[in-house]
Every structure is written in C-alpha cells, then in structure tokens.
Design goal:
single chain; 304 residues; alpha+beta; eight-stranded mixed sheet; three-stranded antiparallel sheet; 7 helices
Length: 304
C-alpha cells in the first residue's frame, strides 16, 4: 500500500495541474499536511517514515496549537507536512471530461449482468444496454467487484464496507490541516467546507445514512474542534468502500481466464492509490515494464 501511495503522491500535483489545464476543472490538489494523533504508534511510525523516506516529525502540544489553533486538546503528535489532498468529486469530473476529450466512449446506467467467456477467455460483457465485445476486460467496479466475479474461479475477497461522513459549511481557514485520530479525520477544503469522517460499518450493500452515525460524527468533530459548532452541516452521506484483506488491492490478470483483469479492493485508500493502481494495471495490460513489482497485488497473492 505504501509503495502505491508513494508513487501516486510523487505524481499527483502534476496530474491535477494537467487535468485542470486540459479540462478547466481544478481537482484542487493542496499540500496542506497531516497531523496524526497516535501516541502508542510513534515509534513504529518513525521507523516507517525512515524506511520509506517520508518527511515526519514529532511535535509537542505547543506546535500542534500553532498549526491548528482551534483544536480543543493539542497534544504530542506526528506532523507530515508534505501530505496533500485532492477534492475527489472535482477529480472525478476532470477525469471524465478528459476521457471524453480523448474520445473514450463512456456508457452510464449500463449495469453489467455477466462477463462473456468462451474457451477460457473473456470476450466482453453483457449489460442492461446490450452486449459489448472486447479483447481485454478490466473489472474496476469498487465494492461490487466481488459480486461480479463471485461465480468465477478464484473470486477476490472484496466486500462492501459502509462509511458515513459529514460536511460542515465553514469559513476558509477555520481548519488548515488534515488531522487523523483513532480512525476519525478532518479534511478542510480551500473554500472552508470541512469534511469529518468516517464510520466503518459491515452492513452489506446498505448505503443509507443513519441518524446514530451522524450524531456520533458530529459529537466527535465538535469535541475535537469546538469551532465547528458555529457552522451548519451542509451534507451527510454514505458510501461503500471495497474492503480487501489487509487493504491490499487486487491489480492484475485473472490466473485462469485470459483477457480478464482486475483493479479493485482499495478499501479506504482509493484516492491516494488511484494513480499508481491505474498506471500499474495499464502497464500489465499493455505488457510494458511495470512501475512497481506487481507480485503483491496479483489476483492470487497472499494478503494479510
């Protein structure tokens, strides 16, 4: 996971700039930094940072307060100044617009009912809007990938995991850095909108939000950043993450069916792992030297 994330982080700024130039949609790549509150993991985190050449420093409560003056309880923490973020809805819009500019045929509202196979080779897909033939089929259906591939040999261990989030309509600069503590994180956008999440709920394909989760997220968010009580909640939504063993995605060809590839199972790291995963998968499909060793992400690789 770290290898994929590291490659992506080296290329994200240029990707965002290029997309904005070509499409007029700015994904808002912002290197705002991350404060990680994990007192029991400081030693392990420092070893990880040294091993992977990542910029990380232990900061005291005074420095925490300087970085985030509205935090309720500044404490010793880990500071990673080079960590960035993108605004994922804008990134998705920019990517789609760029694909359309390049002539890619995108079909929406076309549910895939089956993968078409003949003599051990995938030859296309059967959808709600017809049959599509292809020499290569890549399944990147997120949490639904496991369901689509479940009847085939060696089905991947991908399952949905619901996550709920809140968005506060705050003022720009109210919070300036991402802060992560106990699997709950705050992400401030350039225009002040501030995300807080998220839950991890094993409820199958149930995607509705719940009042209980919304109340819990609001309580934790305002306890950590009391200033957020001043701002309204603009949105509360839920999404289905594609969980996988140890959070290691499947990227590569099917071991028994020619022409069938997968790129799925990124769990909570889809945005940060996306660029490297897409590039690695493209390398494998086009049979060119891969950017990373593909073995850990192979369909049959041991995970966890």
């Amino acid at each position: 996971v770290t290898h994929l994330a590291s490659w992506g982080q080296r290329h994200y700024a240029n990707l965002a700039t290029t997309l904005a130039q070509h499409t007029g949609v700015d994904p808002e790549y912002t290197e705002c930094g991350l404060i990680l509150v994990a007192p029991d993991e400081t030693e392990a985190a420092e070893k990880w940072a040294e091993q992977h050449h990542r910029q990380m420093a232990v900061i005291d409560a005074e420095e925490f307060h300087r970085l985030e003056p509205h935090a309720a309880e500044p404490t010793e923490a880990l500071w990673m100044p080079a960590v960035g973020q993108v605004r994922n809805p804008r990134l998705a819009r920019a990517l789609r617009r760029r694909l359309e500019q390049l002539g890619v045929d995108i079909r929406t509202d076309s549910e895939v009912h089956a993968l078409l196979q003949t003599n051990g080779r995938c030859q296309g897909v059967q959808t709600s809007s017809g049959r599509f033939s292809a020499d290569i089929v890549v399944v990147c259906a997120g949490a639904w990938s496991g369901r689509l591939l479940g009847e085939l040999p060696s089905p991947p261990a991908i399952a949905p995991m619901r996550g709920q989030m809140l968005m506060f309509k705050a003022e720009p600069g109210t919070i300036s850095r991402m802060v992560l503590e106990s699997n709950r994180y705050v992400i401030p956008r350039r225009d002040g909108r501030t995300l807080f999440g998220s839950t991890i709920e094993d409820v199958g394909f149930e995607k509705q939000t719940t009042q209980a989760a919304g109340d819990e997220l609001y309580r934790i968010a305002t306890e950590r950043f009391p200033i957020l009580k001043q701002y309204p909640i603009e949105a509360h939504w839920a999404g289905l993450r594609p969980s996988s063993p140890a959070g290691v995605p499947y990227i590569g060809r099917h071991p028994q069916i020619d022409g069938l590839f997968i790129n799925a199972g990124h769990f909570r790291n889809g945005i940060v792992l996306g660029p490297a995963s897409a590039r690695l998968l493209a390398d494998l499909v086009l049979e060119r030297p891969p950017i990373l060793d593909p073995a850990p992400y192979a369909w049959t690789a041991a995970r966890g």
